Amino acid sequence: MSCSITLKNISYSNKDNLLFKNINLSVGHEEKVAIIGSNGVGKSSLLKIIAGIEESFLGELYLFHHLIKDKKDYKKFRFEVGYLPQDISSFFLSPTVIEDVMFSLRTTGINKDEAYQKALEILEQLEILHLKDRIIYELSGGEQKIVALAGILITKPKILLLDEPTNALDEESEKRIIKILNSIKKSMIIISHHKSFIEQLTPTIYKLENKKLIDYK
Ligand SMILES: Nc1ncnc2c1ncn2[C@@H]1O[C@H](COP(=O)(O)OP(=O)(O)O)[C@@H](O)[C@H]1O
Ligand SMILES: [Mg+2]
To answer: How many folded domains does the chain comprise?
Structure first.
């Protein structure tokens, strides 16, 4: 199987607290995998390891079959991986929706006019074109999550890492996110508490429990 993400014997401690030990996981090409688990078990920590943010783990992380040994290795794949953190309060770097979505693309070296056009396209695709000139911090939580997703998707990553993409969202926003994620063909790891949400996205669900990742039926 062609794997986008492979974890081999990943163990991680936060301070002196062992959160998980010898975790193995493979996410295939365009496969969607969900991880559930109680508060504080280490779901976000695991996703940060895969996102290249948390480096103090044991074991091996592979992206597209390449062993990632350090930040320098990870940098080669930085445009292949889109990471939506659990807390998006410090995610946005520009005041307005269009500027922020363009900004992501500008970091890849694309010129301003082209970035503007591509930003319009992605906003249209996610059905938030009407928000383009709005100040991000004046939007609802659900709208902000979709803007954040636009900023991630515009660089066309092959992998999406989504940490509780629907936490604190109303039913309507949750439905929109389900529709968007189901329309995207990419490898994904989605973390959520919401079983009903997850089940509408993928049959492949694991639970982080007792420091292990176990099949969840
Ligand atoms: N920056 C931090 N400093 C100290 N402890 C932390 C930090 N971030 C998370 N933790 C602790 O690590 C554990 C796992 O956190 P996290 O990975 O966020 O869990 P989850 O996403 O499953 O709720 C929790 O007990 C949390 O309190
Ligand atoms: Mg978390």
So the answer is: 1
